[in-house]
Design a protein that fits this description.
With about 170 residues, this protein is α+β, with helices and mostly antiparallel strands. The protein is built from five helices and seven strands, in the order E-H-H-E-E-E-E-H-E-E-H-H. The strands form two sheets. It has a four-stranded antiparallel β-sheet, covered by helices on one side. The chain starts with a strand and ends with a helix.
């Protein structure tokens, strides 16, 4: 029996930020909270405060490593099994330099990143985005999963792009 495919991924790519960046982020949060209090919207002020604290903590700590295992029973991410009946579809998304707006003269140097996109039946995690090592690894994972789950073209979720821009 085939043991499947294992790999390790980081939660995000860590970027060093200056103390000025954190000061700017904090000032922006305080101004947002102040405006909410001024207009009498205490709930939104609380939401902004909690979001700012959460983002600050996530940015300050380094990336965590997650273990991924694709095997005959399903996809396991950090010990959580997503069995194939709970997966509706998958797609191996490879970044295209044209989509990203990379100038033509830099296409030769462009190293595309690839991600495994899984659509689940779960309300808590309806979509999972898992980074893949390289194009060969992406093809290997695709060839393995196509025997178990429906392949359906998908795009990365907007929240993935926002989290990537923030470095989360």
């Amino acid at each position: 029996m085939h043991e499947g495919i294992r790999w390790q991924v980081l939660t995000h790519e860590h970027r060093d930020r200056s103390t000025d960046w954190y000061w700017g982020f904090g000032i922006l949060a305080v101004v947002g909270i102040g405006l909410c209090v001024y207009f009498g919207n205490m709930l939104f002020a609380l939401i902004i405060a909690l979001a700012a604290i959460s983002i600050g903590v996530l940015l300050a700590r380094g990336p965590r490593e997650h273990g991924v295992h694709v095997h005959p029973r399903g996809v396991t991410l950090d010990g959580t099994l997503y069995p194939y009946p709970a997966l509706q579809s998958f797609w191996v998304h490879v970044e295209d330099p044209y989509e990203l707006g990379v100038p033509e003269e830099y296409h030769e140097e462009f190293e595309p990143r690839s991600h495994l996109l899984l659509t689940t039946t779960s309300y808590i995690h309806p979509t999972l985005t898992i980074p893949l090592d390289d194009l060969d690894h992406a093809q290997e994972v695709r060839d393995y999963l196509v025997a178990y789950v429906a392949e359906e073209k998908q795009e990365r979720h907007f929240s993935d792009h926002v989290a990537e821009a923030l470095g989360l």
